[in-house]
Amino acid sequence: MPAQITLDWKKDSTFETQLDGHTVSIDTSKEDGGTDSGVRPKALMLVAMAGCSGVDVISLFKKMRVRFEKLSIDVKAETSDTIPMLYTAFDVTYHVTGNADDSARIEKAIRLSQEKYCGVALMMKKIGPITYRILLNGTELNIQSTDK
Known about the structure:
Elements: E1 7-11, E2 14-19, E3 22-26, H1 41-63, E4 68-79, E5 87-98, H2 103-117, H3 119-124, E6 130-136, E7 139-146
Parallel strand pairs: 5-6
Antiparallel strand pairs: 1-2, 2-3, 4-5, 6-7
Helix pairs in contact: 1-2
């Protein structure tokens, strides 16, 4: 099934789109000639990867009966030094607050998201390597790299 969006120019360097009934505003910083009235386009790629994986992980946690209270995902991207400034690598950190007895299932759910279910992460792997790590109650469980 094809995906499609429409992006409408509003003024200056501001654009808007409607996604599933929600307005998303895109702009650049004042330093780059924008009005800083929206998010940066490239940052949305990182949001998409974290969101896609987060939805997978929560679904898998429920199916695996993982006892958890909180999930937070940080995504950092390395960029090239020349224009166009491209993403070249990604570091994803999953912060989970939950039962330490579920650590194996937590690791499995996150691995499945990164390697099998999250279409955004699988697309981003074509751009550059993704390294991910899991912090359960502040203690690191695992570091994985999904090569390009």
